Amino acid sequence: MSPCAGRSSSHDAWNFADVWETVAEWRADEPAQTLGTAHSTWRDFEARADGVAAGLLAAGLGRQAKVAQYLYNHPEYLESVFGVLKAGMVPVNTNFRYTESELVYLWDNADAEVVIFQGAFAERVAALRPQLPGVRQWWWVDDGVQHCPSWAIPTPR
User: Fold this and answer.
1) Tell me: the pLDDT tens digits for 102-135?
2) Crossing angle of helices 75-86 and 42-58, rounded to 10°
3) Given this model, what pLDDT does residue 15 score?
4) What gap in Å lies between CA 83 and CA 52, rounded to an integer?
5) What pLDDT shows up at residue 6?
6) DSSP 8-state code for residue 74
7) Averaged pLDDT, 143-150
8) Do residues 51 and 39 make contact, with C-beta atoms less than 8 angstroms apart?
9) What are phi and psi of 148, to 5 degrees?
């Protein structure tokens, strides 16, 4: 059976979250992501994305809200993108090499309402916060480098 069986033929009736959910259903216990010697299954990948999606919805964000990912190329990046898509929101990719002025420009012009950031970037993000009043929440990803700042929310896992 086709993974899209029973869906509307309209191009806006599905997104990558639908594709990844289908793969997670079919391949639940197979590896989805690998970083070094750490592996996560499709079941783990989907569960973590569900946590992100639920957290975004609980924060009161609406359909098409913009959520910036300021993360290294680690599993948390794809988990957050998956969660954002599951919630019907828009991921805003952020290169970790951007300068402070580039970050402010990007997040302000994207109308980002949430920024999910790697713990290693906590000091830089703290310095930018006053320039970004439109960002409603700052989500911290534990990378073992820095403790979660008092103004940030640990990313749901």
Assistant:
1) 999 999 999 999 999 999 999 999 999 999 999 9
2) 60
3) 78
4) 5
5) 46
6) S
7) 92
8) no
9) -65, 125
* Nearest by Cα to 138 from 124, 126, 127, 153: 153
Give 2-48 pLDDT, tens digit per residue: 344 444 445 566 777 877 788 888 888 988 888 888 889 989 989 99
CB burial of 1-13 (b: ≥16 within 10 Å; e: otherwise) equals eeeeeeeeeeeee
Q: How far apart are alpha carbons 118 and 12 in whole angstroms?
A: 31
Query: Residue for token digits 């009736």?
Result: 13
Sign of CA dihedral 39, 41, 46, 47: negative
| Residue whose tokens read 């898509």 | 85
Task: State the pTM of this model.
Answer: 0.86
Q: Report H helices in 59-99.
A: 75-86
* Pairing, β 90-93 against β 112-118: unpaired
Task: Judge whether residue 50 has pLDDT over 60.
Answer: yes
**How far is it, in rounded angstroms, from Cα 62 to Cα 44?**
25
**Torsion over CA: 28, 26, 34, 56 (sign):** negative
CB atoms < 10 A from the CB of 24, how many? 21
